[in-house]
Every structure is written in C-alpha cells, then in structure tokens.
C-alpha cells in the first residue's frame, strides 16, 4: 500500500545483494554462451538459492522484531529485484535487440497484492507485461524467459500480456481487471509505457465511474463474507478473506484509491476520510494481520490463510504471547485477533459513511425514493429527544456535544434507535466511540441509564442493538465484566464464536423462544409463556451474563454468579431476583450435563436434579436458559435428540418437585407418546403396531424424538422380515456433519464394545451414542460418527464395512484387538491438551455405580474404555456417550458381576487408575481383549 523506500533504507536489501547476484548471472551467461537452456537452468538455480536464503533471513528478522508488514515489504523487495535481474538477463543476454524498433518496448508491472508492495512468503506473483501495440516475437520471448525461470524456481505466477489499448478496453468491462490495474506498480522496462497506461486508466476508466466501482466492490465483499460465514468472530478465521481480515482492508484501500485517487493510505488523512487516530488504527490493523499471515506461511510452508486450531498456538508463541491465570497464550492471541477484526469493521463503516455523504456509494433505493418524495423528512428530530435526528432513516447526533452534555445519551441513542426502528449512522457511532471516556462510575450507577439498558435488553431486536453497543465499546464499558470477555475465544472445537458473540447470539435465540412458533424450541417457548411475568427480565439478564466470567482462574459459573450479585442491584433487580439470576448462572451447565450424560430412567438421577433446581419455576427458567445456551454455541450443536432429552428431564422431575402432581404426569406422557406415534405412523395394522409399541421400554418412548421412532420402526420391521441377525441402517445428519449408524442386533454384554471396536477399525470416530434395549432382548443402538467422505455413497460403503466387522466379531471370524491395532495408529499430536478425569460415584444411582470419564477424544477411545471396563469384571447397564468438540465425556452405569454397586475404596481406586491410563492413551497398561 505505502511506499517501501523507507524500509529499503533501513536495510531491507542488505541480505539480497543485487549487484553481486547480477554479476553472477552475467558470469553464467558468459559460461553458457550459445547454450540458452543451460544458462536458464543455471540462472533459475542461482536465483532460487538466493531467494531461499533471503526468505530465511526475513523469517529470522520476523521472529525477532515480529513486524509482519516490514517482512512483507522485505519479501516483495527481494521479488522485485529477482524480476529486474531476469528482465535484464533476458534483454541483454538472451534476446538482445541492438537497434530496437518502436514495437520492441515492454514495461513489466506488478499487479494485485504484489502491486501493493506487500508479499506473504507463499503469495502468488501477479505480473502484467505491457506492450505499446500488439504482441511481437521479441515481447513474447522476453516474457516467456522471465516466466519460465520463475516457474523453474517453484514460484506461483499469474500473468497477462496486453497492449495499453487492450488493457483499457478490458478494464472497462471487467471489474477484476480494473482492480488489478488500479494496483499496478512499475518494476522494470519502459517506464513511459507504464505512465501512459496509468494516465489513460485515470481518464478513460476511473473518471465518472466511482459509484459503479464502489457498489461492485462492496457487493463482492458481502458475497465473500456470506461464503465464509457472516460473523467476524468465528474461532478459526481466515486471515486473508475472512470478515475483518486483510481483504477487507484491501477493499477499503481499493475504494479509497479509486474514489479519491490516492497512491498511499496516509493521503486519506489529508482528504478527510480518516483522522490521524483512525489512520494509526488502520496501520496497526494491517501490521498485525500481516504478522499473522507471514508467520502462518512460514510455519506451514504453504499459502495457508486459515488460522486453524492446530496452528493458533504456534503462531501465538511466535508472536510472543504468554499465558496468564485463566487465559492461555493462544486465547490471549486470538482475543487480540478478534479485536483487530472488530476495528477493521469500524474503519469500513467510517469509509462507507464518507462515501455516502459524497454520494459515491448509493444509498439504499427505498431511502433515495423517500428522500425525493419527502425531502424535508430526510433529516428530522427523533421522537422523544432533541439530541438526535433521523438522517435517511438512520439515527445521528443533532449537535457535536450531545454526549458530553448528557452522558446518558451514550445509552439512550441505542434505545431510541431500537424503539424507532432506525439504523445507526456511522458518524454517530464514530462519536460514540470517541466518547467512551464519559462512561464512568457515575453513568454506570445512573438509574436512567440502567433503566434504558434493561429496556434495550428486553425489547425487540435486542441482539442487533447489543451487537452495535458491543462494536462501539459501549457495552463493555457500561458493564465492565462484559468488557473483559469482548473478543475472547475459547480454545476448543465446541464453541464456534467468541464469548461475547456467543452471549449476544443467545439473546437472539431467547427472543426466538419468546416469540414462539419454532418447533425446535417448543418446550422452552411453552415454559416462557407459563413462567412468572416478573421473571422475564431475570431470564434475559441471566442469558446475557451466563458466560461473563470466562477466562478467570475461578470456575466461570461460580465467578459469574458473583458478578451477577454485584451488578443486578444496579440494574434495578430486587434481592430475591438478584439471587435467582446468580443461581441460574451458577447452574447454567447442570441441566444439559444431566440430560446428556445421566440415565433419565434412574429415579436417583431425577431426585438429585430436583434437589438442585428446588422449584418448578426455577426449573422452567433453567430449561429456557439451557436451550438458548446450547443453540447459541454454533450450527449443528442443538438437535432434536437434545431437545427430547431436556423435555424428558423436565417432565420426569416436575412431579418430584410438586409432590406427585404434574401438569403432564409420566403415565399421561407415555400414553401421549404412544398416541403421537400411532397418529404419525398409520401404515401398520393395529395389532402389529400394538406389539411393536410393547417391545420398547417407557424410557425409549419418552426420550426419542418422533421422526427417529418412525425410522426405527420401519428399520426393525424390514430387518426382521429379511431374517437378518444383525442389521445396520445408515443416515446422514448434514447439520451436525455426522453419519448415523442404527444397529439392530441380539443384545450382548460386549455389544457396545464390539460396535465401538468396529468403528475404530474402520477409522470412524464416535461422537455420540443412543443405546436402547427392547423387552425381547434386542439392542437398538444409534451411533453417530464423524464423516470421512463428502459423498453419501462413500459413507454408506464405510458403514457397510463396519456392519460386516460387527457380524464377523459376533461370529468369531475376527478378533477386534488386532483389527483395531492395525487401524488406530496414533496421529500427530493435537493442539488441545485436556487432563483426563475419572469420577466414580454411588450417589447418582441407587442400583448402579456411575463412572464418568472425560478427556481428549480420539478414534477408538470408546472401544478402549468399554474393553477396559469389561476386563475389570464390570457389567455395563447403560452408557451415555457424547463429545463436545475435542472433549469426550462418557458415562457408564455399571455393577459388579453379581449386580451390586462397587463400594470398596481399593476397587474404586483400581478402576479409576485403569481408566485414567486409557484416557491418557497409555497402551502399555490397557487390558488386552
């Protein structure tokens, strides 16, 4: 973007001696005189060795000074010199023209990212060979000599050869070519030819087309964001093309350069687009993103642009981040990354506002029409306030000092915009950001400010308004605990967004729940209607704050409850409601844990959960919070199975809390489930339907969602009609990205272990399992495995192989330990470190000992665990298998061989030790099956 001359003076070229290398090329030309191919090969080898050495030196400097922009400038300078050396060699040694004609002129020009004077280590090189008229034999030979040598060096080169006329003609009709020419930079050759292109491009292409160009570039940006995921807070961002990443900065500069005809970004200050502070922010963002990108390329050895989990920690270390209590080094690095992405978004908004003021970027069509019809209404006073105006349907300040005059306006502007359905004018948001210093203790304690904030939180479109409050910094300054988790990522594969983005999304889903009509939230919506009206604000503030203490050394649920106890009185909550908010935050993980990893048909599970929730009203609120929380984690995390588990847990617990009375008691719910199934599945005769319903225990009917029940019925019937001892049905859940194997077989003590082993032998990683036994001794198990292939047909064939393995093991044709050992070769170390935990508990069930294991997931883990448990002479009565990103959490209800709980401390210690070794991956101590 900016000139690299300053950096060259600072010693960019002291590791790439152009004079020395040119002399070496000249010596090679003399040595291989008359042998052009040998000369080209020797020259390519020489330049490749010099480039490798220069890149190594650039990487060493980068690791020392951590300045990515300077690194990108160094690498670009080296590439410039190589192309100049090649052009010189081609025109002096290979295709020398003693008396060149007017057509034997050429300008070699850098375009695209290379044209900006910045290159990542593995970036493509984009070149334009400019000719005065049409292609000549001389021009073709010189261009080919340069290109072939670059290719022989292993470089990726994009190129075009055009005359000036052709370049202008194509730029008029193709926005990509227009953008490339916009970023051209002269390298070598005939400079007047290049200057002719620039002059004609300005006059014949750029003039009068600013609006067209801006519209196209912003539309291109929106489409790129749509393809990559709209949020800039995705936890594995793309450093080049993601929202808030380098391409957005490039788009800013393309637009500014086209509209304002500037060459360097610092000229935008003189043009009044950015002030000095915003320009410094622009530079800081670019410097940081270039540091990340250059380190990504160097470390991976390829043009890697995605900051994936397995690269994040290494880049964090390279950039000098260290761990702090409660936050890992990688989490501190990623928080910085997302803060930069947020700032890039702010800069984009500022530029767009400036363009709209100058009408370079067209206002929305409806706004333009309304402005023509009612010109006096384009700017009018906002209802209920003299401090704000409506400017083309966007809220703006009426005077420069509205925030200084009354700091409550920093909250009021958001409430007025929400109340009057107004967008935010970027100039107003700019003023808000500059006024953050006014948010002090006095404003935080101001009753009016807190009342307005609660109105924002509990009114329509709260998610949109809260996100704008967060982007401007108001939310984090007004609620300081929230400010600590802004842009904070959680270094795991379960959460898709940063903590602040997750909380704001949860508010959006909570409003979906309250509106009703969405079948996936049916229970939560029903409970929202039935809960006490005075608790509506309670559930909203609890949802906003439930993860607000992430990143602290203390458990975030306990620390979050403390935050709520301090904050809620300020927001106008009574002592009783404050304590209820604190309780919801402290227990916000309890319901999902119990629902997904406990046996809901075990009376003790329900009694223990009832003791935690204490009342039906608290359970209602906890169910609503749990639903919003799971749904807000990311796409595919919430599903019908989890909804059904929460529903079962709620209705099983309700009669315990009400002393036997339930709005829907268990018998009625069971009858309703049977009736629902009969109504939806009328394709069987009544007698056959009655017999099938009787084959399943009540837990099956209460815990499995209806569509799955229907699939099971058809599958069981077809399997038995075909006479299969073992049958497997394959399904695909595109939302969760898993393949589901439903297995119908004779029940067997080792069946789960056999299924797990067969999956491991096929390289399939189990992410969850639903295990049921029929009254006639058949097992109906649904195992979800991570997809390996894109095509369903390929996944189906893999599932068939797994089924054949299970059958072979049951018939004694195959020994699993050998098959698993052949397949489950230890893969490279994962970026995550999770200490194994094994808990043995006799208080969670009256009949069984409950073993809960948690640790880093890996292929074959469930097989190793179930095999170890069986070898420990334990019977598995039920298993609850789940993964949360990279973390596996499996719960087994077991007894000894006589059907009793495991009470002896020494026996419990032996079990814990063995399973801890399995979780840690210690093959030496695993029992051999």
UniProtKB/TrEMBL annotation:
InterPro entries: ACT-like_dom_sf, ACT_dom, HD/PDEase_dom, HD_domain, NT_sf, PII_UdlTrfase/GS_AdlTrfase, Polymerase_NTP_transf_dom, UTase/UR. It catalyses: [protein-PII]-L-tyrosine + UTP = [protein-PII]-uridylyl-L-tyrosine + diphosphate; [protein-PII]-uridylyl-L-tyrosine + H2O = [protein-PII]-L-tyrosine + UMP + H(+). Gene3D superfamilies: 3.30.70.260, Beta Polymerase, domain 2, cca-adding enzyme, domain 2. Has four distinct domains: an N-terminal nucleotidyltransferase (NT) domain responsible for UTase activity, a central HD domain that encodes UR activity, and two C-terminal ACT domains that seem to have a role in glutamine sensing. This is Bifunctional uridylyltransferase/uridylyl-removing enzyme. Coiled coil: none annotated. Uridylyltransferase (UTase) activity is inhibited by glutamine, while glutamine activates uridylyl-removing (UR) activity. It comes from the Bacteria. Residues 499-622 form the HD domain. Its EC number is 2.7.7.59, 3.1.4.-. It holds the Pfam family ACT. It comes from Bradyrhizobium diversitatis. Belongs to the GlnD family.
